[in-house]
Structure to design on (257 residues):
């Protein structure tokens, strides 16, 4: 079989609703590798937020920060930090509105304020504790993604005022902040270049709003049964819910394992 590359989202795709990797998923990932295919993770998470998953699945290629930090077989091949002036503009407005932010660098994240309930609850949903406080962190370190903590009805003002960044909601209380030209699609393209593979040989598996461009771009888009409606409309293959071994079943439907 011709070598393919398969991109896997984490939350709701690799991890089930209990935050666990199903045994069927572990076996499916191993089967992909046994069949000679590349397996890469494509996630909105920071690299330091899924080291354990990479280790458990023995995956050394990934697109992180929704495309802003890309690694191929253990080597960083692409970095796209948010411009500092754009972060400062956003941070000033967030401070005026008393909305917290988290700034995410290569190896660590820092919060703009102490003990904010939105920060605590959002990060707890991913299994992470409250970050250390350093509101000036973005002044002296490259930031590949930020988190803005506000409710849905409060986001439009930010979108209107900050055209140089993108906002993608991942939690009722939080959204990712990316460079305006950033997306998982761009990160996938960079990794494809490094692997020397074509779009036609690309499979992407996901469930969330931050997967839209990646699923649309890939040669074959495999969409989980638990996916948002907008993503299901783009599916080449729709599989079962993540809690019903959806990833493994989707890869079987695609003829990859």
């Amino acid at each position: 079989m011709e070598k393919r590359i398969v991109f896997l989202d984490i939350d709701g795709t690799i991890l089930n609703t209990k935050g666990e990797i199903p045994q069927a998923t572990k076996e499916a990932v191993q089967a992909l590798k046994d069949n000679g295919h590349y397996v890469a993770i494509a996630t909105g998470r920071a690299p330091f937020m899924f080291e354990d998953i990479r280790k458990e699945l023995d995956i050394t290629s990934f697109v992180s920060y929704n495309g802003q930090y890309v690694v191929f077989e253990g080597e960083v091949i692409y970095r796209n930090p948010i411009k500092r002036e754009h972060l400062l503009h956003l941070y000033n407005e967030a401070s005026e509105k008393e909305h917290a932010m988290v700034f995410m660098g290569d190896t660590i994240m820092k919060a703009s304020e102490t003990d904010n309930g939105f920060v605590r609850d959002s990060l707890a949903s991913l299994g992470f504790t409250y970050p250390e406080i350093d509101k000036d962190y973005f002044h002296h370190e490259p930031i590949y993604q930020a988190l803005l903590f506000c409710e849905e009805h409060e986001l439009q003002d930010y979108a209107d005022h900050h055209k140089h960044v993108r906002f993608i909601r991942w939690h009722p209380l939080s959204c990712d902040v990316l460079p305006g030209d950033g997306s998982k699609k761009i990160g996938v393209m960079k990794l494809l270049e490094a692997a020397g593979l074509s779009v036609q040989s690309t499979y992407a598996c996901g469930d969330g709003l931050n997967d839209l461009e990646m699923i649309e771009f890939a040669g074959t888009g495999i969409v989980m049964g638990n996916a948002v409606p907008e993503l299901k409309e783009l599916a080449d293959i729709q599989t079962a819910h993540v809690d019903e071994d959806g990833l493994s079943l989707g890869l079987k439907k695609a003829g990859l394992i």
